[in-house]
Amino acid sequence: MDTSTPEDRDPDTSAREGKSPELKAFWTLYMDIVFISLDGNPFDAAWGSVLAALRDVRLPQAYWDEDHDCVLCDPDLAVARPLALHALPVATSFGVFATAAASSSASAPGSNDEGVIRTNTAKHNTATGKKWILVDTDGFEEWLCAEGGTVVVDMGVEKGQVVRFEKSGGTEIGVLEMKEMLRVATKRWGEWKDVLRMAR
Q1: Angstrom distance (rounded) from CA 192 to CA 137
Q2: What is the pLDDT of residues 19-65, one digit of tens each?
Q3: pLDDT score, position 3
Q4: Is 77 exposed, middle or buried (0-12, 13-18, 19+ CB in 10 A)?
Q5: For residues 125 and 118, what is the distance between their CA atoms, to the nearest angstrom?
Q6: Cβ neighbours around 171 below 10 Å, total
Q7: Which residues contact 45 (CB under 8 A, 6 or more apart)?
Q8: pLDDT of residue 152
Q9: Dihedrals φ, ψ of 166, to 5°?
Q10: What is the distance between the alpha carbons of residues 42 and 101, in angstroms, rounded to a whole number?
Q11: Which residues, including other chains, have CB under 8 Å from residue 12's CB and lie 6 or more apart?
């Protein structure tokens, strides 16, 4: 936070007097997330709303007032500045629906099972059953999926970055399926980037 006085904002004046910025206060950001209608996948929806809200934040010009001995903010929106965001992590959640036969014969990591993305699902066949990886599950699908997880990626940095990859609830999916989910998450990141850019 810039806590200089109005006179200190002039760089020439500060240089002549040998003054340097002094920390007097800092910004604290609070966010309330309210679901008006919820039909599954609350984390991705909340995460997306947080990203959109942060890109719309404007910080007023703040300065230290010696007469009042406190920090004051300039009400002029023309001098307000946007919040500097240095990353765009996007979350993609998924659930795994499997038949009883597939659940009892889960493929081991590194198996030769092939996955094909069909809109929002990836289908995998095992010797005695089937399983599907569902992306952006609704409330009914979440109830049917014992296994699930979330992939958070940020492709805005050099070579891209996997911020977080977590999975819980079972052992149905292995290394190949995780790589497929990473590919889907990377594609979803590009979609979110376009949406957020158009929304501004």
Answers
A1: 17
A2: 777 788 889 999 999 999 888 899 999 999 999 999 999 999 998 88
A3: 43
A4: exposed
A5: 14
A6: 13
A7: 35
A8: 96
A9: -130, 145
A10: 30
A11: none
